[in-house]
């Protein structure tokens, strides 16, 4: 349009000169005087003559000079118009390229950084004589804590590609029980807490630094050209259920993650490639996820062999804004896990070592899960359930605390109900959970609790929770008594 509009002002040779142009020849005067501009057009060679004797002779010469000057003027104007049209065409082309390629827009923010932090206080009450009390050195003491400090790196250099990374800064392994070697005389085995601070030799004051590890929660690149078919490559959260995907403190209802997640009954992350998308069918949105990955990666972030993990999810959602929101989902996972051990033994020749590579344990797992999310007005209901079948190819660790025997069935579920109130913008909630798995001493875990949330601002929330956990045995042959512990948590959460 810019080119067309500019060309419309340029006159064609047959159209005559534009009005007001100083280079255009004027009509001859009635008195026979030379036309204005005629001298300039003729190079100043024509001389003034008496009107009575030279009018007839001057007219032809003046007319010829004016015509020649007019043609030259028009040619110059056309050339200038063509130059302007070419320049405008370049500018228009650059504008169109910028619209098609957002990455060429210098004013566009290519990287956004945001995140959240939750801090607060907690306490656990547990019988110090219990075996798993040794794994909880922070129990039976009031503790101020930094729960999560997560940063998101969100980059979209083009409209079809996006990178999302999430980093969590932790205090681990500070405070973790680790072996103490050698143990003192008369002690068979000793553990102690890992030092939280380390000596900083680069400091001029030779001080100690405090801190821990930086964990990569996720890091993936997405190709999002089509709504029905998108690709994700990298490390991503396993698309299963509700809590495992929406794991950030600001979007959760409870102050603590349900044991459905923390028990690692299924792998919480995958490293691989995933296809996903959605489509609308009337008022419903139907979506899917399908991926291939390295499998369960708790032991290592990579695979030790060419066995792959597979999984997928189907979900459907319906929403009537302000009244009803329903989402249903079902997921499956086919995965494997193993360890990697290298044994070095003396070789036949002096100084030689023989090397043997193998695994001490390996298993396959088959997981099915379902979830439902329902919002009715200000009431929110959530529920998830999973069934797991583990089959060991090799086994190790039978009889040790924290290990499962081979070929196990596991089931886990939880249900949650919350209601938002106008009074102080509060949200009370209750939660119940159950886990059935063959622990060494017990095979069942029950949890019951609740809490109260305060939505202070859109970015600041205070969540509180109290939970009673009971470990018991449903097997008739077991004589182990039930054990329990209580936990109370308060978290101030700020999103930024």
Rg computed from alpha carbons, rounded to a whole number of angstroms = 39 Å
How are the strands of the biggest sheet laid out side by side?
1-2-3-8-9-10-11-12-13-16-17-18-19-20-21-22
Largest sheet: 16 strands, antiparallel, barrel
- The 3D shape can be described as globular
How many strand elements? 22
Please mark out the parts with pLDDT under 50 across 5 or more consecutive residues, or reply none: 1-60, 102-107, 398-402
Query: Treating each run of at least 4 consecutive H or I residues as one helix, how many helices?
Result: 4
Structural class: mainly beta
The average pLDDT value, as a whole number, equals 80
Percentage of residues in helical conformation: 10-25%
Order of helices and strands: HHHEEEEEEEEEHEEEEEEEEEEEEE
Distance between the termini: 44 Å
Oligomer: single chain
Fraction in beta strands: over 45%
